[in-house]
Every structure is written in structure tokens, then in C-alpha cells.
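Note to self: keep these together.
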Amino acid sequence: MWTKETLIEALEKHCVLTDQEKQSFRLLWKAKLKCVEVKGCYITPVNPPNIEVSFRYEPEFDWEKRNHSQSIISEFSMLANGISYWKGLCEEKGTDHQKDRLFMAQEMLLSFLKGLKFGGISIMVDNVKAEDMSLFE
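Structure:
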């Protein structure tokens, strides 16, 4: 999940940031996108969270479990990063549009987690249940 601090830490490994960029989540995000475009690399947090998926009903085959887990982690990460993005912009400016987008992103992740729970699947992020994370605050 991206914050100003995690963006700065990750971007300093790939590019040079100005003092102005370091003060603005929006400018850091633009720098991240520009760096990805120029270098053609995928930038991840330096210390990414440990995400574990558990199944109430174990899939029959190991490859099936691995594929399900990877798909779930990928979708969860995408939705959580969406929340991080809008949360960062809200903290910086806090317009109604940004607050609405943050609410929508949180609702999408909550719906995703409810669907998994209904199917007997749970996600732990650094030993915390995903639905108990600060993403929803």
C-alpha cells in the first residue's frame, strides 16, 4: 500500500526526486508513473506487506491453489493500492471528488472481501485480517 513515505523510499532507488515532489503525494505518484514509463520497470514498495490467502475448502491440486492465491493477491493489491492513492490525495487536498473516489474504492475492496469470505476464503496482511486494516478508516 502506498504512502508518501513508501513512494519516496521506492522512487529513490530508481530516480532523483525534487524537494517539491517529496512534499506532495500527487507529484510523487506522477513521478512513479513517469519512472515506470521511462524505465519500463514495475515499481513496488521496498518492504511489501506479506499477504497470505487461506481457503476453508482446499483446492484439489497445488497448482489450482497457487493460481487462485496469486489471482486473489493481485486483485486485493490492485484494490488496496487504489485506496492508498485516493487516501493520499484526500490527505493532501481533500476535495469532495477525492473523498467520493476514496469511498468508492473502499466499497469495492469491502465487496471483494465479503465475496471471498462468503466463498470461505480469507486474506491476512502482515498477520492482520484484511477487513481489519486501516484501509477503511
